[in-house]
Amino acid sequence: MLTTSFPRHQGDRAGRFVFDLAKELSRQHHIAIVAPGAEGLHSHETIGRLEVFRFHYCYPHEYEKIAYGRGILNNLDQRPRYRALIPIFALAFLMKSIKVGKQSDLIHAHWVFSGLIGLLGRRIHKKPVVLTVRGSDINVQYAGARTSRPAFRWVLQRSDYITTVSNDLLKMITDEFGVVRRIACVPNGVSLETFSPMDRFEARRMLGLPRKIPIILYAGRIIESKGIRCLVEVIPTVLKAYEDALFVFLGEGNLVERLVRTCKDMGIEQSVLFSHERPHAEMPFWLNAADLVVLPSLSEGRPNTVIEGMACATPIVATRVGGIPELVKDGENGYLVPPNDQSYQRDEV
C-alpha cells in the first residue's frame, strides 16, 4: 500500500482508515505499507501483521513536516518554504515504492498523489496499480487547482482499477474524467467492537465533562473546507435556545487560533472548548458523550466521523455534500442542511 498518511504511533488518527483496511486485509494477505517519515519514526517497523516502510526526505528529520498534522495542502500553505522539498519528497516516495513494489503482487495507492507514484514506479516493478480515491484529493485539490487536472486525469485513466469511498465520488470521476470501466464504490467501514453505544453520563465522567448540559461535538481538522467558520458564527443563535450548551471542537488546523479569538470577540468563549486531536481509543467516549455530532463541511468524501457517530447511536447534523447523503437520510437517522448557510433552520432540530 502506498499512502501519504498513516498512524505514526499507537492512538494516532492520521490515516487511521488506511490502517484499519490494511489490518483487515492482513488476515488474508501480507501487507507492506509505504508512508512518509517524520521525526522519531523508524524507516522499517512491524505493526502486528503489517510491515511499514517509512521514506525520509529531509535531514535532520525534524524538518519532515510536509505530511501529517494538518494535511499536506494545509501544511504547505502554512509553511510555503517547505514546497521546495516536494520534488525530494516525491523522489524518495518513488524510490521506496519501487523497492517494496518489486516484492509485491499488487500496488494499492491511497489518494491520487500516491497513485501517481505507483504508476511511475510501474515502469520498473511491473505490478498492477489499484487507486483508492477518498475525497480530499478530488474535492479539494481538483476543485481548487485547475492546473492539476491533467495530472489527475492521467492517473485516473491509467490506473488498473479504481475504488471510491462514495457513489458521489464515483459519479464525479465518471462524469469529469470519463472513467467508466474498472471502477467501483467500496465504502469505508468502522469497527463495531470499538464504536458502539454506551451510557452517556459514564462517557462524560470518564472525559471529565459536565453531566447534564447539552454537548455538541465536531471532530476533524479545523480548516476552511470543513465549514468551521459557519458553525462558530451560528453558536450565539444556538445559545439563545440552550444557554448552557457546550460546543466541543476536537482537531488541529490553521484556523484554531483565529477561531479562538473570534469566540472571545463574540463573548462565547465559555461555551466553546477547543482541544487537540484526541487518540483514536478516546473517540468512542467523545462520540457517546455528545448529544449531537455536527459536520459542517463544504466538501467531503465519505466521512468516518459520521459513520462512527452513527455506530455510537449519536444524532448527526451534517451538510448535504459529497457522500454524506449516502449515510444520513434526512429526518430518519439525522438531519442534512445546506453548506455554509446560517439562515437555514429546522423546527425539528
Overview of this protein structure:
This protein has 349 residues and is α/β, with parallel strands linked by helices. It folds into 2 domains: 16-185, Rossmann fold (3-Layer(aba) Sandwich); 200-337, Glycogen Phosphorylase B (Rossmann fold). Helix content is 37%, strand content 16%. It is built from 13 helices and 13 strands. The protein has helices at residues 16-25, 72-78, 86-101, 112-125, 136-144, 149-158, 167-177, 200-207, 228-241, 256-266, 283-289, 304-311, 324-327; strands spanning 31-36, 44-47, 50-55, 107-110, 129-133, 161-164, 183-185, 215-219, 246-250, 272-275, 292-295, 316-319, 335-337. The strands form 3 sheets. The protein has a 6-stranded parallel beta sheet with strand order 10-9-8-11-12-13, with helices on both faces. Strands 4-5-6-7 form a 4-stranded parallel beta sheet. The radius of gyration is 21 Å and the shape is globular. The model has no long low-confidence stretch (mean pLDDT 90).
